[in-house]
Amino acid sequence: EIIDGEGKVVMPSFIDMHVHLREPGQTEKEDLITGEKAALKGGFTHVCAMANTNPVCDNEKTIEYILNKHKENEICNLTQISALTKRLKGEEFVNIDEMREYTNLFSDDGLNVDDIELFKEALELSKEKDFKILTHCEPEAETIKRDLKLLTDVGGNLHICHISLRKSLDLIKEYKDKGLDFSCEVTPHHLFEWNNEYRVNPPFGTKDDRDAMIEGIKEGIIDAIATDHAPHTKKDKENGSPGISGIEEAFSYVYTVFKEEGISLNCLSDKMSYAPSKLLGLDEALIEEGKDANLVLVDLNESHKINTSNFVSKGKNTPFEGRQVYGKILITIKNGEIAYKNEERKNDNR
Ligand code: DOR
Ligand code: ZN
Ligand code: ZN
Questions:
Q1: ipTM for the complex?
Q2: pLDDT (average), residues 124-149
Q3: CA 111, CA 109: separation in Å to the nearest integer?
Q4: Which of 38, 66, 230, 298 is the S-S candidate for 313 at Cβ 3.0 to 4.6 Å?
Q5: How distant is the alpha carbon of residue 93 from its chain centre?
Q6: Residue 19 CA, ligand 3 centroid: distance in Å
Q7: What is the pTM of this model?
Q8: What atom of ligand 1 comes closest to residue 52's alpha carbon?
């Protein structure tokens, strides 16, 4: 098939290190099919799904179930994350050797944050068994400080999820300046918004916190952008569940902000494609000659209003309904084939 891309831009497709696909157990919020379709629509060809499913993904049976179900359709490429502790409770480590067969990512959700010995052991294990710990240190910047001190002493493979505060950025900068090797991510919504009460974890910061995130991107302190796509039902949102369904419009939020802030498209490509591919160890495969391409075709001149009735995700939860953004994903190519094509007519969405 010949694609007419005149006036459009071709980029590497995006890789999302942090999504919630809710399978098994919460398929009223999302499932693998809708979540993976939403990812493709957002220009992502690889997502990493968090372990806070029901049952928690901390055992062979559950991860097998997820990966088998995923393989039935294989809409988007998937890395399933394992919880690091059983039932996310911070009591006992999962059988890491068993789970390591399926994944190289372990989330510290629920790891008892007061238990420094437990975290130390986790860092040691991450070196020994060659996996990455995805840590949820915020909202306490103090926890980041403690964790980075410990990382300095012990070593290990650490990635800090969704930072949102200037305090956190300052600490991260301090330790990166000292030469400590670790990475961190920010979400599109924490770049796009501030001073908003909408429930999300971590909460939206102040304007100054948000400006710190922009500086962190510009100065190369923040490694990657990851959506933390967190779909919920209307009822669950009314009952206070935190989170934003964000993967479909992630590129537009980021591009809109980058355009306003004068940050280049190359930088966007680094934060949304190349950096995550390196952090996940996918970059070797990506640059290997003869491999099928993963690409997006985007229209940078397009502008539209966020409209949740177009979402393919089951989660319509967002504080951004009606907001004007720039940039649209027209086509997503996964493993050399067109996996998503935008079919909306030009003026549908103005
Ligand atoms: O807002 C959030 N929602 N942040 C998280 O870290 C978890 C997520 C969820 O699972 O809904
Ligand atoms: Zn989180
Ligand atoms: Zn999350």
A1: 0.96
A2: 88
A3: 6
A4: 38
A5: 24
A6: 6
A7: 0.95
A8: 10
Cα gap 188→156, rounded to integer Å: 27
The answer to whether the CB of 238 falls within 8 A of the CB of 198 is no
- Evaluate if residue 349 carries a pLDDT over 50: no
- Give 20 Cα–ligand 3 centroid separation in angstroms: 6
Name the helix (H) or strand (E) containing 160. strand 158-160
Q: Give residue-wise pLDDT tens across range 198-233.
A: 999 999 999 999 999 999 999 999 999 999 999 999
Q: What is the pLDDT of residues 149-186, one digit of tens each?
A: 999 999 999 999 999 999 999 999 999 999 999 999 99
Specify the 3-state DSSP secondary structure of 102.
Answer: coil
Tokens representing 140? 């306490």
Q: Are strands 77-80 and 82-83 parallel, antiparallel or unpaired?
A: unpaired
Which amino acids are annotated catalytic? 228
Q: What stretches of the chain show up as alpha helix (H) in DSSP? A: 32-41, 60-73, 96-100, 116-128, 141-154, 166-177, 188-192, 207-218, 234-238, 250-261, 265-269, 275-279, 283-287
